[in-house]
Write the structure tokens for this entry.
Amino acid sequence: MFDINHGNLDDSPDVGQEIVRRIHDRFGDFPARFQKADLVRLDVPQKDIIPVLSWLRTETPFVQLTHLTAVDWLEDGQFELMYLVTAPDLMVSLHLCVRLDRAKAEAESVFNLWLQAETYEQEINEMFGIHFPGSPRQGVPFILEGWRDMPPMRRDFDTVAYCDRTHPVRPGREHQDSRVYVGRKFGEKGYLK
Amino acid sequence: MELFPKIGWTLLSLFVAINYGFLINGLIRKVMARIQGRFGPPLWQPYIDMGKLLVQRNSIMHGYMHWLGPIFRSVGGMGVYVLVPVVIGEPRLAGFSDMGDLLLMMYFMFFGSLGMALGAGDAGHPHSPIGVSRGLSQMTAFEMPFILAVVALAAHVGSFDINAIIATQQHGVLSWNLFANPFASAAAFLALLGMNMYAPFNIVGAPTEIPVGPATEYQNSYLSLMMIGRSALAIGKMVMFMDLFLGGAHSIGAAVVKILAIYFWSVFVGAVFPRFRTEQSVRFFLRWPTAFGVAGVLLTQWVR
Amino acid sequence: MKKFDPDRPWDLTTLPTTMAPQGSRPHAPVEDQCFLGAEADIKQPPKLQEAVATIKNWFRASSLNVLAFGTGCGAIELRPLSTSRFDMSRFGIPGAPTPRQSNVFIISGYLSVKTLTRVIRCYEQMPDPKWVVALGSCTINGGMYWDSYNTIKVLDLYLPVDVYVSGCMPRPEALIAGFQYLMDDVKKGKANGWHHYLENLEWYRENQKQVITDWDLPNYNW
């Protein structure tokens, strides 16, 4: 697609370098990491993510939202949203990472840019409790029907305690902590009998 | 022949035909399995399925129409069978062929599917009406070439009576309509692929897509009745095709062989082709088979 | 009005629109002859009764239609089982796409709570007698999902299981062996999990409602 300021993106020898340069020119100096030849990671502040995504969607070949997921950085008190945006013609992906405030847990929806974001946002809403105002199907159960506890992908959710509380197990099964098992197996200090 | 002996012989012949249909069904499963490199179920597996269906408990029924659907279906199949003469010059196996003509037979073929459609619609499962609408649209499509073929034969003979059509084919193999009316035969045998609902045209009960189409909500005894109706209809149709195009049969052995040959035409085609979508099959039937049918009708007029 | 007899659906005088209204409780038929050892007040002599039951059970065991519902990773084993390498149709075991026409339910691996709801629905829609084959260690004690928040650990708290096939995953041969055990049990009239389910429906319902918190199924899914 032709960009009036820079010329055609398809012609540049390294599309990843070129698109990062253009984003830097246009939006600001975001830290970039060139992970592979066809994968670039950009850390974008929250206020800039919607302008960057709209620009990518409308004016560059990066028209496909391949994936949208979240990571819980419990120690930093932050959530991280990860948008994987792909240029299907050039086979190059941009990995845009946004940090959110964990206490507020709210992000802008990209549903109006990509319709399929609806499902991703529904799932993130269910699994992490991040709210996307304006996205349809927020709060509608996706996998967890009748879930009454904390969103299970948050790291302060105690899976084993929930499991013991909810799902009865057959008696007779031995539970082994895998860390203890590996420590014993390889004779690590502190794990020997 | 008196009426009551005739009814008795016809029922006996119907019973034998249904059993033959069961065995052919088993044979088809076996042949399909061998084509796919499997062993396949035993030849008598349809009988076992039938017995199992009869000893399971029915747990639901959805009202009168749902209950009557398989009955309509099997009545349609049996109606076709009792109207065709199986062996030439054998009044005990002629059924009621002197009392009905081809139009009545075609009515019976349509009637069974229509009754089944009504019953399936009563079941309320969303897959049933989908299968029904697919089946009926495909059916109207293949009726077109088939009716043209029948009209061509009737114009050739000057009658819709099946016995008259058989009588014109008794002058050697080349007088069979298969060779005497090649275009009409091509149209009818292509329409037969759609009637038998083997692979290119099995969109109606497309497994893995809409589970089994109209029969989704039917279970045990309903299914067994449908099995009976299906084998009666299959054998009736094959005998009809044999009478119309292959010159009938002079003995039971010849009838058995010819029925098997006609049936396996659609089975072998089904073994190697993938499935058409509904609009593809409708388009297919309305192109070449219909053109063949029109050509057949025109050819008979020209020959006259 | 006479009671509707499901074994005599042709009796039009007793024909309701559906056999049982939504939510009513099914009855467990002790008089059904698929139990060889059942105490039943049937007028026939016991020898004849036993012979009839043997024939019926032989029919049932020789034509087991498997519901095409893959719940977990074990469903991947059902494809080689039904295709040319381990052809299961030679035992008379084809697949059936709808619960109304199937007799065996293979729980093929882990069951999430959402799937469990659908499984219960499908299981109760199958005609009696019906059997459940539990495939893989997930159905026995949770397997590798023992600490998963959304996966049930013990299947037989929620559904009656007739045959367990252990392993992770069991090979198709193991499943065929499981089917042989099931056939033997059906022939002997011992595979009566469905009857146990009907008799102890309240107990099963209580367990099911413990994990399915937004229970919106009727009391019995006809």
